[in-house]
Design a protein that fits this description.
The protein contains nine helices and four strands; from the N terminus they run E-H-E-H-E-E-H-H-H-H-H-H-H. The chain binds glutathione. It comes from Aureimonas populi.
Length: 240
Amino acid sequence: MVYDLYYWAEIPGRGEFPRLVLEAAGAPYRDVVRLPEEEGGGMAAMSAFQEGRGPHIPFAPPFLVDGDTVVSQAGVIAAYLGEKLGLAPESEADRQFARSIALTTADAVAEAHDVHHPVGIGLYYEDQKPEARRRAAEFREERMVKFLRWYEKLIEANGSGYLAGRRLTYADLGLFQLVEGLRYAFPKRMRVIEGDYPGVRALVETVRVQEKIAAYLKSDRRLPFNENGIFRHYRELDGE
Ligand SMILES: N[C@@H](CCC(=O)N[C@@H](CS)C(=O)NCC(=O)O)C(=O)O
């Protein structure tokens, strides 16, 4: 079974959360929008799906199509794939909690996005710069620390080096992507605070060297962060 992942072709964005799970598991998948139209890809394929093929119509990308099953919401897709592909914890309690972690990571991602778009997602960054500066200060000082401290506490309490259970899961892959995104968007701030979270740092490195992830990160399937995406680096929004 080949999974179909639908997401914007030019940014890693939220599509990267399910994509990392597919890559870490070595699962066969198509990044549909990145394919040529002659092969059933391109933006037309994504629009057609959102307009035409009910009853399960996703509100926004990313979404995954697995036969008759359609799943949207980055954290939910990551959980769905992780549970199917052996990248979820074993016990029921840990499996449930891993889902909570993935959705909390999605919240953190949304907040990182809202730093550069605090007034409206349909407006240009240039039209909301003063508000973005205010939002960025609060995000850097309060929210980044609160999220990272929570992940650190989870790793400490769990005792295995992972966020939930005793093996690498989609929740860990999500933390990897969040930390990489924060490092890209807020390099100065991350340099100052990262050292306070040694468990998080170690887990990010564990993910980076996982065999399939290491190969993926070197491939051209891995898109760099950029200023059209969720994690954007604007010098004026970063600070120690
Ligand atoms: N909560 C959703 C958010 C989805 C979302 O906002 N997707 C963006 C791209 S990252 C989009 O294309 N949104 C279109 C829209 O909201 O109209 C998730 O985590 O997947």
